[in-house]
Structures
1.
Amino acid sequence: MARTRRPLIAGNWKMNGLKADAFALAKDLAAGVKQAGWSDRELLVCPPATLVAAIAEAAGGSGLLVGGQNCHAKASGAHTGDVSAEMLKDAGATHVIVGHSERRADCGETDSIVRAKAEAAWRAGLVPIVCIGETLSEREAGDTLSVLETQLKGSVPPGATAANLVVAYEPVWAIGTGKTPTVDEVSAAHAHIRKVLGGLTGDAAGVRLLYGGSVKGSNAAELLAAGDVDGALVGGASLHAAEFLAIAKAA
Ligand code: 13P
């Protein structure tokens, strides 16, 4: 059967990127994407908010998509230092990451906050990439699947479709550590996520599920071939054009 879920390879630059290096990286990625001419996969980079507009402009016409790393639930108002989904859209973004574990940990983001942010993304015409994932102690306690289920049910608003939602499974203990779950563990988590999504949307079979956590060129093919994996959310390796393009090639 033809694959219906087009793989999405997303780069989360996190709090990295000053103009000079970021432009050079975006230019190399845009050239790589243009040269490859991929129509069977999508590439997305999520730079810091300060660079979204400029990177969107630099990527223009290449097919490289640009997203935000977070948004506020409100469209505008007295929220000093925050960025709205509408502002990201206005800057050229197509996607926004919501509920990354670093924001859940650093900023106390709960499932209901993440859900409000996902709704804000929809209001602005962006696709939210909703992140969920267990901590090491939760995994060791055997609670992985129930943690994922709780996060998913709390973070995905009603109204999700294959077109307006991406979910990223990022085990907290695999982020930036060089450690990854086994392919079987990834498949089991993703199969469970899709099953739970089945209770939240009639479109669960079409929703793209990304794996994130220490993905690099050398392990991408194996991780991306795991059951129910439709792409990757890449941190560190997305800061190097050759490495990120190698991951995209593996998709
Ligand atoms: P690393 O790829 O650096 O482990 O980060 C993963 C991540 O958090 C992407 O959002």
2.
Amino acid sequence: MDESLDTVLVSYDEETGVGTLTMNRPDALNALSAQLRADIVAGLRLLEEQNEGADGVALRAVVLEGAGEKAFCAGADIGGFSSDSAGGSSDRTHYDVIRDFPTPVIAKIDGYCLGGGLETALACDFRLATEDSTFGFPEVNLGILPGAGGVQYVTKLAGPAVAKELAMFGDHISAERAADEGIVDRVFDSDEFDDEVEEFVSGLTGQAPLAVQAIKKSAQMAVQSGLNEGLRYDRQLFVELLNTEDHAEGAAAFAEDRDPEFEGK
Ligand code: DAK
């Protein structure tokens, strides 16, 4: 499937189960206009539709990337900047939709990853970046703070001092520093980036899809809840997974000393 929305390219590879969303405003460094935010949501919905009528889980992972040579995303579109253009309406934002999306979403970052662009990457399950990428919260230069939880999420990943440094100074940091702080998961040479991301994603899509989806929900719960609530939730997810065909397949494959073939059932 290849579909071109106004500001997002959507593709789905049936063979691998990988969907790709490309934010496609390269001339504006993929800044988050209202249209782009709506198209990210619409693109995710189109990808989710691949599961309809499928035998098991068809869509195994989504890669989110930015078009052009310079940026993943340079944040909210300053041209039309207002609380609305920044995503300030009471509707579910693209950040919420990415976080709640059933399959893992991988941010493939090559270039600037700033402001709402960094918050978009933080909403994803993994952040993979080229060594030349840079990260930051420039909102303070506009007299505001990161409006989609940037300080909250960086505090959870890297601690309050790093979150405050990024948001108060508004400086850009390197991919290497972002990885050292735990904000980015992996940094790769630009030459090898596409291959490395593909390998990372294929490692993920080979795993039992329902278990992967349950782990995403569990991790989300761990961020939001207290420990006892999280433990109760995990037990419930665990019991559900015990009844799946994938669990039976995993156990059979182990007993027969072969690779499992998971269908997401
Ligand atoms: N918006 C619109 N256009 C942008 C842009 C942006 N954020 N960033 C860059 N561009 C445009 C430039 O205007 C330029 O357009 P032309 O002049 O060519 O027409 C083109 O992209 C290339 O940019 P530059 O010429 O500036 O390129 P440089 O390499 O020199 O500099 C830069 C790259 C990324 C360092 C620089 O462009 C820059 O500082 N950009 C602004 C970064 C920024 O401040 N971003 C916005 C932060 S505020 C909320 C949720 C989220 C948010 C708010 C609320 N709620 C839920 C309520 C988020 C807020 C933000 O992200």
